[in-house]
Design a protein that fits this description.
Layout (H helix, E strand, L loop, with lengths): L7 E6 L2 E7 H13 L6 E5 L14 H8 L28 H8 L4 H16 L1 H21 L5 H10 L2 H8 L4 H12 L3
Antiparallel strand pairs: 1-2, 1-3
Length: 190
Protein backbone atom coordinates (compact mmCIF):
# COMPACT_ATOMS: atom_id res chain seq x y z
CA UNK A 1 0.00 0.00 0.00
CA UNK A 2 1.09 3.56 -0.59
CA UNK A 3 2.61 4.90 2.61
CA UNK A 4 1.68 8.49 1.71
CA UNK A 5 -2.07 7.97 1.77
CA UNK A 6 -4.39 7.20 4.63
CA UNK A 7 -5.60 3.61 4.42
CA UNK A 8 -9.36 3.64 4.03
CA UNK A 9 -11.02 0.31 4.52
CA UNK A 10 -14.21 -1.57 5.34
CA UNK A 11 -14.67 -4.41 7.84
CA UNK A 12 -17.24 -7.18 7.71
CA UNK A 13 -18.35 -9.66 10.33
CA UNK A 14 -19.63 -12.38 8.08
CA UNK A 15 -22.08 -10.68 5.72
CA UNK A 16 -22.59 -7.62 7.95
CA UNK A 17 -20.57 -4.44 7.43
CA UNK A 18 -19.36 -3.33 10.84
CA UNK A 19 -17.19 -0.32 10.00
CA UNK A 20 -15.79 1.87 7.23
CA UNK A 21 -13.13 4.54 7.51
CA UNK A 22 -9.47 4.79 8.32
CA UNK A 23 -7.64 1.61 9.25
CA UNK A 24 -7.11 2.40 12.93
CA UNK A 25 -10.78 3.25 13.51
CA UNK A 26 -12.01 0.20 11.57
CA UNK A 27 -9.53 -2.14 13.27
CA UNK A 28 -10.69 -1.02 16.72
CA UNK A 29 -14.33 -1.69 15.80
CA UNK A 30 -13.32 -5.09 14.43
CA UNK A 31 -11.45 -5.76 17.69
CA UNK A 32 -14.65 -4.98 19.64
CA UNK A 33 -16.57 -7.45 17.48
CA UNK A 34 -13.94 -10.12 18.09
CA UNK A 35 -13.83 -9.42 21.83
CA UNK A 36 -17.61 -9.79 22.15
CA UNK A 37 -17.33 -13.19 20.45
CA UNK A 38 -18.09 -12.54 16.79
CA UNK A 39 -19.96 -15.51 15.36
CA UNK A 40 -18.52 -15.11 11.86
CA UNK A 41 -15.12 -14.29 10.44
CA UNK A 42 -14.08 -10.65 10.67
CA UNK A 43 -12.40 -9.42 7.49
CA UNK A 44 -10.99 -6.00 6.66
CA UNK A 45 -10.73 -4.91 3.00
CA UNK A 46 -8.75 -2.02 1.53
CA UNK A 47 -11.33 0.30 -0.08
CA UNK A 48 -9.26 0.88 -3.22
CA UNK A 49 -7.83 -2.55 -4.07
CA UNK A 50 -10.13 -4.80 -1.99
CA UNK A 51 -7.06 -6.64 -0.75
CA UNK A 52 -7.45 -8.15 2.69
CA UNK A 53 -5.67 -6.19 5.40
CA UNK A 54 -4.03 -8.30 8.06
CA UNK A 55 -4.30 -6.85 11.56
CA UNK A 56 -2.76 -8.33 14.68
CA UNK A 57 -5.67 -8.32 17.15
CA UNK A 58 -3.72 -9.78 20.10
CA UNK A 59 -3.88 -7.93 23.37
CA UNK A 60 -5.99 -4.93 24.24
CA UNK A 61 -7.50 -2.34 21.93
CA UNK A 62 -4.65 -0.04 22.95
CA UNK A 63 -2.13 -2.70 21.86
CA UNK A 64 -3.86 -2.99 18.47
CA UNK A 65 -3.93 0.81 18.07
CA UNK A 66 -0.26 1.08 19.00
CA UNK A 67 0.71 -1.49 16.35
CA UNK A 68 -1.26 0.48 13.74
CA UNK A 69 0.31 3.84 14.62
CA UNK A 70 2.34 5.36 11.80
CA UNK A 71 6.02 4.60 11.98
CA UNK A 72 8.33 7.57 11.62
CA UNK A 73 10.61 7.00 8.66
CA UNK A 74 14.27 6.45 9.26
CA UNK A 75 16.71 8.91 7.77
CA UNK A 76 17.72 7.66 4.35
CA UNK A 77 21.36 7.25 3.59
CA UNK A 78 22.71 9.32 0.70
CA UNK A 79 22.19 7.64 -2.65
CA UNK A 80 24.77 7.15 -5.31
CA UNK A 81 24.74 8.68 -8.77
CA UNK A 82 21.46 9.29 -10.52
CA UNK A 83 18.52 11.60 -9.96
CA UNK A 84 17.35 10.91 -6.40
CA UNK A 85 15.24 14.08 -6.16
CA UNK A 86 13.13 12.87 -9.07
CA UNK A 87 12.76 9.43 -7.51
CA UNK A 88 14.50 7.76 -10.45
CA UNK A 89 14.95 4.04 -9.82
CA UNK A 90 17.23 1.87 -11.93
CA UNK A 91 15.76 -1.48 -12.99
CA UNK A 92 16.55 -3.98 -15.68
CA UNK A 93 14.65 -3.86 -18.96
CA UNK A 94 14.99 -6.67 -21.49
CA UNK A 95 14.46 -5.72 -25.13
CA UNK A 96 15.40 -7.03 -28.54
CA UNK A 97 18.47 -5.48 -30.20
CA UNK A 98 16.30 -3.58 -32.71
CA UNK A 99 14.41 -1.97 -29.79
CA UNK A 100 17.66 -0.88 -28.13
CA UNK A 101 18.91 0.51 -31.47
CA UNK A 102 15.74 2.58 -31.86
CA UNK A 103 15.77 3.79 -28.23
CA UNK A 104 19.44 4.79 -28.40
CA UNK A 105 18.82 6.77 -31.58
CA UNK A 106 16.18 8.95 -29.86
CA UNK A 107 17.03 12.44 -28.57
CA UNK A 108 18.16 12.09 -24.97
CA UNK A 109 18.83 8.36 -25.30
CA UNK A 110 17.01 5.27 -24.13
CA UNK A 111 15.95 6.51 -20.67
CA UNK A 112 14.34 9.70 -21.95
CA UNK A 113 12.58 7.84 -24.76
CA UNK A 114 11.25 5.18 -22.37
CA UNK A 115 9.95 7.80 -19.93
CA UNK A 116 8.16 9.61 -22.78
CA UNK A 117 6.63 6.35 -24.03
CA UNK A 118 5.43 5.43 -20.55
CA UNK A 119 3.89 8.87 -19.94
CA UNK A 120 2.14 8.80 -23.32
CA UNK A 121 0.76 5.31 -22.61
CA UNK A 122 -0.42 6.43 -19.15
CA UNK A 123 -2.35 9.34 -20.69
CA UNK A 124 -3.71 7.30 -23.59
CA UNK A 125 -4.91 4.34 -21.52
CA UNK A 126 -5.82 6.08 -18.23
CA UNK A 127 -9.55 5.38 -18.62
CA UNK A 128 -9.06 1.76 -19.60
CA UNK A 129 -6.60 1.23 -16.72
CA UNK A 130 -9.06 2.81 -14.24
CA UNK A 131 -11.82 0.45 -15.40
CA UNK A 132 -9.50 -2.58 -15.19
CA UNK A 133 -8.41 -1.67 -11.62
CA UNK A 134 -12.06 -1.17 -10.59
CA UNK A 135 -13.03 -4.54 -12.09
CA UNK A 136 -10.14 -6.27 -10.33
CA UNK A 137 -11.01 -4.66 -7.00
CA UNK A 138 -14.71 -5.52 -7.26
CA UNK A 139 -13.91 -9.08 -8.34
CA UNK A 140 -11.43 -9.56 -5.47
CA UNK A 141 -14.09 -8.47 -2.95
CA UNK A 142 -16.86 -10.47 -4.62
CA UNK A 143 -14.75 -13.64 -4.67
CA UNK A 144 -14.01 -13.36 -0.97
CA UNK A 145 -17.47 -12.37 0.22
CA UNK A 146 -19.98 -13.55 -2.40
CA UNK A 147 -18.25 -16.46 -4.11
CA UNK A 148 -20.88 -18.90 -2.82
CA UNK A 149 -23.85 -16.57 -3.24
CA UNK A 150 -26.50 -17.14 -5.94
CA UNK A 151 -25.79 -15.22 -9.11
CA UNK A 152 -22.07 -14.78 -8.38
CA UNK A 153 -20.90 -16.11 -11.76
CA UNK A 154 -23.45 -14.07 -13.70
CA UNK A 155 -22.58 -10.94 -11.70
CA UNK A 156 -18.91 -11.54 -12.49
CA UNK A 157 -19.68 -11.87 -16.20
CA UNK A 158 -21.71 -8.65 -16.06
CA UNK A 159 -18.88 -6.85 -14.25
CA UNK A 160 -16.32 -7.72 -16.91
CA UNK A 161 -18.80 -7.18 -19.76
CA UNK A 162 -19.59 -3.69 -18.49
CA UNK A 163 -23.28 -4.45 -17.92
CA UNK A 164 -24.36 -2.56 -14.76
CA UNK A 165 -28.05 -3.49 -15.05
CA UNK A 166 -27.30 -7.23 -15.09
CA UNK A 167 -24.72 -6.79 -12.32
CA UNK A 168 -27.28 -5.07 -10.08
CA UNK A 169 -29.86 -7.74 -10.86
CA UNK A 170 -27.53 -10.62 -9.95
CA UNK A 171 -25.89 -8.99 -6.92
CA UNK A 172 -29.33 -8.00 -5.61
CA UNK A 173 -29.72 -11.62 -4.43
CA UNK A 174 -26.82 -11.27 -1.97
CA UNK A 175 -26.85 -10.04 1.63
CA UNK A 176 -27.47 -6.28 1.57
CA UNK A 177 -24.13 -5.07 2.97
CA UNK A 178 -22.14 -7.30 0.62
CA UNK A 179 -24.23 -6.28 -2.41
CA UNK A 180 -23.98 -2.58 -1.53
CA UNK A 181 -20.20 -2.71 -1.14
CA UNK A 182 -19.77 -4.73 -4.36
CA UNK A 183 -21.97 -2.26 -6.27
CA UNK A 184 -19.97 0.65 -4.90
CA UNK A 185 -16.70 -0.94 -6.00
CA UNK A 186 -18.09 -1.93 -9.40
CA UNK A 187 -19.55 1.51 -10.12
CA UNK A 188 -16.11 2.79 -11.20
CA UNK A 189 -15.93 -0.08 -13.72
CA UNK A 190 -19.19 0.94 -15.36
Amino acid sequence: MDKDRQTLCTAFEGARRIASGDLKEVALKAKKALDRGAQAAVLIFDDISSELIEVDFRGTAADVAKRLAPVTPEVEEPRGPGRPRLGVVAREVTLLPRHWDWLNSQPGGASVALRKLVEEARRTYAGRDRIRRAQESAYRFMSAMAGNEPGFEEATRALFAGNPKRFDEMSGKWPKDIADHAKNLASAAF
